[in-house]
Amino acid sequence: MKKYLKHFAVLFILFAIVLAVFIAALIMKKPKEEKVYTRTNTQCKTEERVFDYADVLTDAEEDALRQMIAEKQDEIGCDIVLVTISDPDYAGDNAMMNYADDFYDENMFGYDEPWGDGALYLDNFLGIGNSYSWFSTSGRVENRYSSSMIYDLIDDICYNVNRDPFGSYQLYINSLAKTMSSDSSLDVEIPTFAIWGVAALITLIYILVCINRNVGKKTTDANTYVAGGHAQFPDRRDVFISKHTTSRKIQTSSGGGGGGGHHISSGGHSHGGGGGRH
Amino acid sequence: MIFKCRNCGANTVWSPEHDRMCCPHCDSLDSEELITNENQYQCLSCGAPMEPKPYDSAIKCEHCGAYTIFDERISGKYEPHLVIPFKVSKQKAKEIIREQFEKKIFLPSGFLKEASLDKMEGDYIPFFLFDIHCHYRYSARAKKVRSWTVGDTQYTETSIYQIYRTMDADFNRVPTDASQTMPDNEMDLLEPFDYSAMYPFQPKFMSGFRGELYSIDGPTLEPRAKAKVRKDAVTLMQQTISGYSSVVPECDDCQCQTQNENYALLPVWNYTYTYRGKQYQFRVNGETGKMVGKAPMSIGKIIGCSATVFGLITAMGYMMQTIMGVF
């Protein structure tokens, strides 16, 4: 028992520290205050938030999305806009970005002020495999969403948007609302499977380290039995024979990554965003 | 033969602590008296019959604990030329095993118990020590490659060399165990022995220990000794060739010639531990204290310790999850 306790002393100490912090956290825990937002942008040109120009949604679905957006907007204090089109003129990331940003700017969306807090999701339906998506962010949403978060959201929506646009747009609204209602400092969330996975991995490493049962390594070397401790080399020559030189041009490649990040729209307003295909 | 104390008549043994003969009964030093008997297979101390195995040259009497050395198994063609006496005592060997294994958490509880370790036996293991001369001729074509860049052009310069080497080396007393019962790899790992403490054979060094005569003769072992030498010679040769990006051998001729061979007894402590019907062997070099062996594992302890680690890490993970949700 003594050996067992000594063996796990470091782990037990670590556990005690985490336990102490855990207890302290529980004592300090305060009930979350519900933030109440009041719309202050009075210059927005439209009350509409769902613009289904591609006609991929039924009227009932559009109404359901409108109702959902209306609720979520006041919860998170951000405008949530959805636009679907079917226009080959906007095939391509740049065209989609310009369309989305201009649409947002021209309608003066923004929950707190024109061109303020809000997001717009644009889908351009041009057939499976040829359709484009763009997620445009502004104000607090722009600050909150990193490039990876934008692409994660687009991936999630694009996954099923051709088969179930209504479900995918519900996902967009919920996901946006969830992200904006959570504090950015809580962004690092430990998933339960990760806890089990890390514990299993550490246990496996621990077993592999402790299971080493062999004792005794080779302690002789090549000189151990050589008389005088070293061999004699009566002939030891490295004779230079020839030399030749070759040359080659170094190919330089140009280009780089695309998409995402912050930019200024044609209207002069800052937007973030990223696009994808489905 | 047996060595008896002139003062008390008990069996005197070789004492690694004192580095001389000692009577464990009356603590007299160098009080030994050699007793021989016509009847080899009878204990010269208590008269009990003895049944040595075919390759035993000295054994302990099961009745009185005295050590008898069998004359005909250490004479004639079985007479060792050399011997390294035990320098590590049984107590020291036990301490070495304890030090090596006390931190191994998966060991069965009984492994390091005094009662188990007390079964350890000191054995003189038969070895043949070969003196081998090695003449090694080597030549190769080698390349050195150097690259540099100027502007957008990369230049590569390749230099060709012809390597010539001749090596002469005398490998002295290369040990090769001559026991069929001892695994070669474990005996190799027990090396090196310190030959400065090697003496011409004297039977008194065997008193107090089990002895074994060779069961593999010199000519049979010679190829193994030469293989060991050849391997070392290749290493020595390769150590002289460096700085090349590629080496293609053209001549690689290593000739090994045996100059001499000696039959020697080298000291080894053997500890056998039986766990779940399987025997685990541990050897301690009786001269240097170097240890070789593979420890048994308790399945119960593996499960218990792994569950502890997994449980604590998982619990910490969940607590961290909660903590991050609060701050």
Task: Outline the fold blueprint.
The complex is a heterodimer of chains A (278) and B (327).
Chain A lengths: L1 H6 L1 H20 L21 E3 L6 H18 L2 E7 L7 H14 L11 E7 L7 E7 L1 H5 L2 H12 L6 H17 L10 H19 L3 E2 L16 E18 L12 E3 L5 E8 L1
Helix pairs in contact in A: 3-7, 6-7
Chain B lengths: L1 E4 L7 E3 L4 E3 L9 E4 L20 E5 L6 E3 L12 E2 L6 H12 L12 H4 L3 E30 L2 E25 L6 H7 L8 E2 L9 E3 L5 H22 L6 E30 L2 E8 L5 E4 L4 H28 L1
Parallel strand pairs in B: 7-12, 8-11
Antiparallel strand pairs in B: 1-4, 2-3, 5-6, 5-11, 7-10, 8-9, 8-12, 12-13, 13-14
Verbal overview:
- The complex is a heterodimer of chains A (278) and B (327).
- With 278 residues, chain A is α/β, with parallel strands linked by helices.
- The mean pLDDT of chain B is 91.
- Chain B is built from five helices and 14 strands.
- Chain B has 327 residues and is α+β, with helices and mostly antiparallel strands.
- In chain B, 22% of the residues lie in helices and 39% in strands.
- Classes of the chains: A alpha/beta (278), B alpha+beta (327).
Q: Globular, elongated, flat, extended or rod-shaped: what is the shape of chain A?
A: extended
Element pattern of chain B in H and E: EEEEEEEHHEEHEEHEEEH
Query: Mean pLDDT of chain B, as a whole number?
Result: 91
Mean pLDDT of chain A: 86
Our Rg estimate of chain B from Cα atoms comes to 28 Å
Number of strand segments of chain A: 8
Helix content of chain A: 25-40%
- Helical stretch count of chain A? 8
Strand content of chain B: 35-45%
- Our count of helices of chain B gives 5
Order of helices and strands of chain A: HHEHEHEEHHHHEEEE
- Alpha-beta classification of chain A: alpha/beta
Instruction: Quote the beta fraction of chain A.
Output: 15-25%
| Poorly predicted runs of 5 or more residues of chain B | none
